[in-house]
Specification:
The chain is 39% helix and 12% strand. It is an alpha+beta fold. Strands 1-2-3-5-4 form a 5-stranded antiparallel sheet. A 5-stranded antiparallel sheet has the order 9-10-13-16-21. β7 and β8 form a beta hairpin.
């Protein structure tokens, strides 16, 4: 029977059991044969389940190793594990952990050993790193991925937490558990790297060129990881970044930045020469033609410098405008500065237009005149775009300046005082002392739910109250309507049918999936959540691009990715709900499969899911709409919230974390290093089983489809 020493030797080096190891190793193996019976080569020091990365000790060489085993003893899983091991072992790069060898876990499952991943995750370290050091580490990551891609291997699950920075700056790309030789995953690696770079730049004043690299990579705009590396190196060296700016103006601007001193000397020399010529000729007073020529030379030199400067500054203004959200008082000074600078630059368009008209129309390609024409065309195009944004930013500035008075002073202040008294008296709010919330205006207490409603002013006008039903009447001009949900213990998840949990019992769900358990409690603070899904009119009001297929101002926005939804929330000073907040809002105190009961056939009255109106329906009933319906077309739940089981699926803030992990106190957020984010609720195209209150789904942050939209939330600010 083959012993542990022989197995380890065979697995590590690929030699048959009867092959003689080198003399230098035989002595060590004979020494290990003296180990007491039953003593293994790998002594477990610490670590979670055997299939996870754990720290162990190689007794042969007296060193710590990491060990990862096949997740199960299933032959298919063992083959997958062996394939991943071979692919990783074929890579030889300083930033990619090596494979030391193959061993067997205690239950016989194959496992591989390698170096222990030391250091901190890049995302945790990024905040304390200099930008240049951070980008140098990212270049090393690109090198490692390029090395793997050149050998037909893809990482498959890259994130910022997979990149570790050691004590002395060494870079390691870890977690190659999903390594694959599927070339189609190259773009996934590039997009994942772009998102990791984006995450690391959060909280920094990232230069626009660098932000463009991260965005271009996240969107899959690079054909290979080498392109990302080239742009990062170009940024570090002060050259033109391909993802940001191209063309003669960009090349000249980058060249000037790299050679500031030389350019300064040349410009100074030109100005001095022009001034000297003008002075010498003017002093002579005898040659008026020469004086005029010197003056023209000086003026032309200054005009050329001004045109280059205007081109660069207009580009900066276009980028800065996208960052001037939300429209809150703190951002008003930056908006005023932007408006003043934009107005000054746009007022010079007539000079640039006249210069362009005066250039020879038949200039040879590549000539100085042709180059200047390109610069002027680009300058005027940017000036037109900036000029069109001046009125937009001015309205945003006025909204920001008047926001405090409009939402917390005057009549709004009186409304807040009335709401505070009423909220504090209501039992379900448990004596909550409600402070005025900047950007929100109290509406009324909903008669059916007993919850207070609030208007979000940045997304539109307050709704009108229907005198018959007491509900909010939504029009294309209406902004987001938020309900203040009380805090408390939320019970989340579902239970499978069993002898002790029969059908119809609380939280018992025949459609239950494994990721819906265990049933657990999460303590939530009071929070705001929108009564309706975000409409296309509200979406476009914040200058978001609408890709919805079913058009209608009151239809929910669709085809929105998680990145799109997060950007909308940033502009609106709102946020996406966590998974815990979403399910708590959906159930509204119910313990059934759906908030209204257990019978899926009742969905036709309550929500818009797959129905007989579809060309290829999965359900037999008719709900009145083949595609999306205007928000609020069906009955609300007990919290007064609409469309939770249908219309469009709704993004959540957090990833699809395990229910076995601890949820964050107050909002129930679950940490997740995965790129995927949770999607909750059913949709017009999905069957009833996916519309259940406990049903969980997820997709990559860049994913978008005809049934992906959003509902917004906001924490209570005290």
């Amino acid at each position: 029977m083959t012993g542990p020493v022989e197995r380890f030797w065979e697995g590590a080096d690929g030699m048959p059991p009867d092959a003689a190891p080198p003399d230098a190793v035989r002595d060590l193996l004979e020494e290990l044969d003296d180990l007491e019976a039953g003593e293994a080569l790998l002594a477990e020091l610490a670590g979670p389940a055997p299939h996870d990365l754990g720290r162990n000790r190689d007794l042969r060489l007296e060193r710590e190793v990491a060990i990862v085993a096949a997740r199960t003893a299933d032959p298919a899983e063992e083959r997958r594990h062996a394939r991943a091991t071979r692919l990783q072992a074929a890579l030889c790069h300083p930033a990619i952990p090596a494979v030391y060898g193959i061993v067997a876990a205690e239950d016989g499952r194959p496992a591989r050993t390698g170096p222990v991943a030391r250091g901190e995750p890049l995302l945790a370290r990024a905040g304390s790193m200099r930008l240049r050091d951070l980008l140098s580490a990212c270049v090393t990551v690109c090198d490692a991925l390029a090395h793997a891609h050149a050998r037909g291997v893809c990482h498959g699950s890259l994130s910022a937490d997979c990149i570790r920075i050691g004590r002395f700056g060494e870079v390691r790309v870890t977690d190659w558990e999903r390594v694959s030789d599927d070339a189609s995953l190259v773009q996934d690696d590039i997009a994942a790297f772009g998102r990791a770079l984006t995450d690391c730049l959060v909280g920094r004043d990232a230069p626009p060129a660098l932000a463009a690299v991260a965005a271009h990579a996240s969107a899959g705009g690079y054909p290979g990881i080498e392109g990302v590396r080239a742009d990062l190196v170009a940024f570090l060296e002060g050259r033109v970044v391909g993802a940001y700016r191209v063309g003669p103006a960009a090349e000249l601007s980058a060249w000037i930045k790299r050679h500031r001193t030389a350019c300064g000397l040349v410009v100074a020399a030109l100005l001095l020469a022009a001034a000297g010529a003008w002075w010498s000729v003017a002093s002579a007073r005898s040659d008026r033609v020469a004086v005029a020529a010197a003056e023209r030379l000086a003026q032309d030199s200054l005009a050329d410098l001004r045109r280059l400067g205007d081109t660069w500054q207009l580009a900066r203004l276009l980028i800065a405008e996208r960052g001037m959200w939300p429209a809150v008082p703190d951002r008003a000074p930056a908006m005023r500065e932007w408006i003043a600078r934009a107005t000054e630059l746009c007022n010079r368009r007539a000079l640039h237009t006249a210069r362009l008209a005066g250039l020879a129309p038949d200039a040879a390609p590549g000539s100085a005149v042709d180059w200047e024409r390109g610069v002027l065309v680009e300058l005027l195009e940017r000036a037109t775009r900036v000029d069109g944004l001046v009125a937009v930013v001015r309205r945003r500035h006025d909204l920001a300046v008047g926001l405090r008075e409009a939402t917390t002073g005057g009549a709004a202040g009186d409304a807040w005082r009335r709401a505070r008294v009423d909220v504090q008296s209501l039992p379900h709010y448990s004596g909550l002392r409600l402070e005025a919330q900047l950007g929100l205006v109290p509406l009324w207490r909903d008669a059916a739910s007993g919850l207070w409603l609030f208007a979000h002013t940045a997304t539109g006008a307050p709704p009108r109250r229907d005198p018959a039903s007491g509900r909010a009447v939504i029009t294309p001009a209406t902004g987001i309507v938020l309900a203040l949900l009380p805090g408390g213990d939320a019970r989340l998840g579902s239970r499978a049918v069993s002898p002790i949990a029969p059908r119809g019992a609380p939280y018992v769900d025949e459609g239950r999936r494994a990721n819906e358990g265990p049933l657990h409690r999460v303590r939530l603070r009071p929070f705001f959540v929108s009564c309706f899904e975000v409409t296309q009119a509200q979406w476009k009001r914040l200058r978001m691009t609408d890709r919805s297929r079913t058009r209608g101002a009151l239809h929910p926005v669709e085809y929105a990715s998680h990145d799109d939804a997060s950007e909308f929330c940033r502009r609106a000073d709102l946020e996406l709900p966590t998974e815990a907040q979403w399910e708590y809002a959906c159930r509204a105190g119910s313990t059934n499969v759906y908030w209204f009961g257990d019978d899926a056939a009742d969905l036709a009255r309550h929500d818009n899911v797959s129905s007989a109106e579809l060309p290829a329906p999965t359900e037999s009933w008719r709900d009145g709409f083949a595609f999306t319906a205007p928000v609020g077309s069906y009955l609300p739940n007990r919290f007064g919230l609409f469309d939770l089981h249908g219309n469009v699926r709704e993004w959540c803030r957090d990833g699809l974390g395990s229910y076995g992990a601890t949820a964050g106190e107050g909002d129930g957020v679950r940490d997740s290093t995965a790129d995927e984010r949770a999607l909750r609720g059913g949709s017009w195209v999905r069957p009833a089983r996916e519309a259940r209150s406990a049903s969980r789904g997820a997709a990559k942050r860049s994913f978008h489809d005809t049934d992906t939209g959003l509902r917004v939330a906001r924490a209570l600010r005290q």
